[in-house]
Amino acid sequence: MSAVNDTKIKYAMFLLTGIPGLEDIHLWISIPFCFIYVFSILGNSTILFIIKTDPSLHEPMYIFLSMLAVTDLGLSISTIPTILGIYLFNFREISLNACFAQLFFIHSFVFTESSILLLMAFDRFVAISNPLRYASILTLPRISKMGLVCVLRGVAVSFPLPFLLKRFQYCRANVLSHSYCLHQDVMNLACSDITVNYVYGLFLTVFTVGFDSLLIFLSYVMILKTVLSVASHAECLRALNTCVSHLCAVLLFYIPDIGLALIHRLGKGSSPLLQIVLG
Q1: Which residues pair with 15 in a beta bridge?
Q2: d(CA 29, CA 23)
Q3: Which of 68, 154, 181, 188 is in Cβ range 3.0-4.6 Å of 111 for a Cys bridge?
Q4: Would you kindly state where each structural domain of the chain is located, as residue ranges?
């Protein structure tokens, strides 16, 4: 009993969380999740298949789109097992090592996707502001190198996370806030000093998601400036229409991601349901 009171128990497992208060209908909740993930995998796989088999789509815009589809597939595969495990089988336990591995892949794909969205904004900027040099600027070798840099950046900044978390003892609690593991969620369960993790996590958020979103915003400012200088109203609308889908993807990606990062660091008294919805 004294060991419990002194919080000296070391947990070997984390417990993942579904939607609180709705445990009795988890099986029904799993149905829309199954449909969402099936459509995600089939949709992204279809995009990759069409782009690969149609030579007319071997252009920078569609190559960037295929990169985005690959990262979306990676995110889906990284999160599907534990989410469906909770809602279908009520399996909430995950070992520390499995949790660390999952969060590494999730954060790697998130940071990679952020970089790819930035590349897609750059692609639209070049296409609209300098269409005559578009093909000469975004050549296939250059696009390949840019894609490789995005992947290396995502892996490099996420690589230290499991090792930073592995050095802790987890004895305060073992219940996570989501149906999968995130660095900022796991580190809050440690009974050690998490200053290094906190600073590094904040640096990652600012350096990757924050920096990329700022550059995307600036690129759209430049795009808007270029489009408004076009005399023809029809040409102006045509140029903006090529950016709509990318802008929607940017908003759907960055708003929940930044919101979740702020909640985990600043919103200690926030609603658990809000965290789950954003997650």
Answers
A1: 93, 175
A2: 9
A3: 154
A4: 2-278
**Residue 103 CB partners (closer than 8 Å, separation 6+):** 161, 162, 165, 180, 181, 182, 183, 186
What integer pLDDT is reported at residue 4 of this predicted model? 42
How does 65-98 read in b/e, with b if 16+ C-beta sit within 10 Å? Answer: bbbbbbbbbbbbebbbebbbbbbeeeebebebee
pLDDT tens readout for residues 126-154: 988 888 888 889 999 999 999 999 999 99
What digits encode the pLDDT tens for the residues 234-277?
A: 767 777 777 788 888 888 888 888 777 777 666 666 666 777 77
Place of tokens 């076009």: 230
Tell me which residue has tokens 């099936």: 38
Looking from the CA of 6 toward its CB, the CA atoms found within 13 Å total 4
Contact 181, 102 (CB under 8 A): yes
Distance (Å, whole) CA 23 – CA 54: 46
- pTM (2 decimals)? 0.87
Let me know the angle formed at the C-alpha of 163 by 159 and 168, rounded to the nearest 5 degrees.
Answer: 150
Domain 2-278 has CATH 3.40.630.30: no
- pLDDT tens-place string over residues 58-78: 889 899 999 999 999 999 999
Between CA 214 and CA 181 the distance in angstroms is 27
